[in-house]
Amino acid sequence: MLHATMNPPNDDATQDPSNPRGFQWDNVSRIAARTRDTVLGVLTLAGHATRRVHALARTIDRDGRQVVADAAALWASIQIASRRAEATWQATPRIARLLREVARVAAIYQLHHLKVGFFAESRQVELTTALHHREGARIRAFCEEMGGGLLKVGQLLSARADLLPEAWVQELASLQDRVPPADLAEVMALLKAEVPDFDSLFSEFDEAPVAAASLAQVHRAHLADGRVVAVKIQRPGIDRVIAQDQRALAVVADIFGGVMPGFDAGPFLREVAVSLGEELDFRAEAVMGSRFRAAFGDSVAIPLVVGPTTERVLVMDFIEALRLPDFLASAVDSDRDTILADLARTIAAGMLVHGLVHGDPHPGNFLVIPANETSSPRLVMLDFGAALVLTETERRAYVELLPALFSRNEAIVAHLLTELGFTAPDPAAPAAFALAIASSLVPQDLASIDPRAELERGLALAKLYPGLVVPTHFVRISRALAAVSGVFMQYRPDLNLGALLMQVLVKASAPR
Known about the structure:
The chain has 20 helices and 10 strands. By secondary structure, it is of the alpha+beta class. A hairpin with a 4-residue loop joins β3 (216-223) and β4.
C-alpha cells in the first residue's frame, strides 16, 4: 500500500529514473490541492486529466514509484493544457466557464475518491455526504448564475434521483420553476413589443411572476373580458445565450467520452443542445400543445391557448393547481399513487398510442389539481416546447419493439432497431445491447430496484458495444423516460408498471 507521505527524490545524478522531473508526492490531499487550482482554467482537462486521475485511483495499491511517475505525467499534461486553454478562454468566456466547471467537478470527485480511501468506512460516508451537499449547492448556484441552456440542464438533472446524490437533487429541484426572474422592465418592454395592443387586451397584469424557469417566466393576468390567463414570456436576450450554450454543449459532448471511457453521453448532450433551440419558438409550442389536448381530451388538463401567440409570447388559460413535487410531498398514499399512475400512463400512451413525446417532463412541468368532493386529483401537463412527433412508422416500430424485447426475439429486435435508425460497427450490437438491458425495462416491484446498481450494469454493458449510435428520437425519448423514472425512484409508488404498460400496448396495437 502506498503510504500517505513519501520523501522527495534527490536532485543528484543518481536521481530515480522513474521520477525524472523530481516530482514531490507529499500526500494525496496535497496533489489534490495543487491540481485543482490548475484544473479551473483548463478546457481540455475533462477529457484527459480526469481519466488519468481515474488511473491513479485504480493503481493506488501498485508500486509507489510507478504511482509517482503517473502523477508527474498528470501534472505535466495539466500544465500543457492550461497554456493551450488561454486563447479559448479569452475568445469564448461562457463556453470556457462551463468547461472549467465540468473539469472542476470531475477532478474534485476523483481526487476525493483517492483521499477517502485512507479513512474508515464511517468517515468515508461522512466526508462524501458533506461533499455532495457542498457541490450540489455550488452547481445549483452555478446554473442560476449562468441561466439559459445551462439552467435547463440543471432542471433535467433535478429529476434524476435515480442517478444523482440526494443532496444534488434537492438543490437542483429549486431550478424547476423557482429561479430568479428576469428584469421586469426588460420583460415588459419585450411583451409590449410583441403584443402592441397590450393595454386594451389586458385589464390586469401581475408584475410578479408565478413561475420563472430557464427560458421563460409566467405572469398571471386578466383579459378585458375577465378571463384569467397565464402569460408566458421569453427571457429577454435568451436567444443569444442559448446560441452560446448550444456551442458549449457541443464541445462538452465531444470531450465527455474521455471523462467516462466506454460510455458516450455525447448524443444526449447534443440532443439537449438541439432541443434548446426548438423551445425558443412559442408558436410551435402552441401548435404542439393543441395536439396533446386533442390526444388526451379530459384525462389530462392542458392549458388552452386563448390569446395572441408570437415567437416569444404565449397566452393560455390559467389553471389553479399545485406543483407536482408539492402535491406528492403532502398527498396521502392513494392520491400519490393515482397521480403517478396517471403520469406513467400519460407518458407511455403519448408515445405508443399517439406518437407524441413530451420531451421535457421534469417535475416543474406538471401540476396537480387537488381532489374535491366529486373528483380525484387531476394531472396537469405544461410546456411542449421540446415535444416530438413520431412518424407512424416510428410509432409502430416502438410498439412492436417492446414485446420483442420481453420475449427476447433477437431477429425481430435487430430488424426493428435498424428500421428505427440504430447503427454500430457490429450490425448485431444494437440488438444485443437492447436484449441485455431488457430484463429491467418493466420492473414489477419498484421498491426492489437499486438504481445505482442498474446504472453500473448499464454502463458495463455499454462498454461491450463500442460505437453504438442511436437516432435522435430515441435520445429524446430516453431523456423523457429518465426524467419520469427519477420521480418514480424518489417516491416509489405502489404500482404494477408492467401491467400498466401492457394495457397501453394493447391500445397502441389496435388498428388505427
